[in-house]
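Sample 1 of the test manifest.
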Amino acid sequence: SQQGEEDPQALSIQEGENATMNCSYKTSINNLQWYRQNSGRGLVHLILIRSNEREKHSGRLRVTLDTSKKSSSLLITASRAADTASYFCATVARGNNRLAFGKGNQVVVIP
Amino acid sequence: DTAVSQTPKYLVTQMGNDKSIKCEQNLGHDTMYWYKQDSKKFLKIMFSYNNKELIINETVPNRFSPKSPDKAHLNLHINSLELGDSAVYFCASSLFRTNPYEQYFGPGTRLTVT
C-alpha cells in the first residue's frame, strides 16, 4: 500500500524559529493531510490539502503540495515549545478509501 | 467532553491470553477505525466500520476481531495474543459523508504482551 515518507526524521529547533518537514509519496492521490501526535497521545488532524491545491494555510501552518514531484511540505512558523510533537503526513490514493500514514517527523522546540 | 475514548489505556498480558479493547465516540460520527502503531511509530490501519458495517479489513491475522454494536462503539478483540501484538492501538472516527479523511483519534491503548 502507498505510504507517505517524511524527511527529515528528527528536527530540533529553538523557540521562535521555523520548522519545515517534507513528505513524499508514490502514487496519485486525492488529498494529503498532516497530523500531529504529542507524546503518549492520539493523533490530531492539522490540515488537509486536495490534489488540485498547491498551498494552504492554517494559523502558523503552511502546507504545500507538488503533485508532479509527489511531495508535500509542512512549515510551522514562529515555533513554540508546545509544538514539540511528531508530525505525520497521510495520503489518500485515488480509488482508495483509506489513509496511509508515513513514519513521522519528531520535532523538538527548545524554549 | 466530546471525544473518542478508549479503555483500557494500558494493557499488560501474557502470550496466549485473549483480551479486548473498547472504543466509544460521542461526536456523532458514522465511521470508526482501528489503527496499530508499532515501536517505530509507524501507523497502519487495521479495520474500519461505517454504520456498523465493515468497510476496511486490512491484512490482519484472524485472531483480531472487531465488533461494532452501534455507530458509537467499535471494540477490538484479540485471541491468543503473541509478542508481536505489542503496540499502541488507536481508535478513530470520522463523518464519512462530509469528510471521511479528517479523523479524530482516541488516546491509544498500549498493549504489552509478555
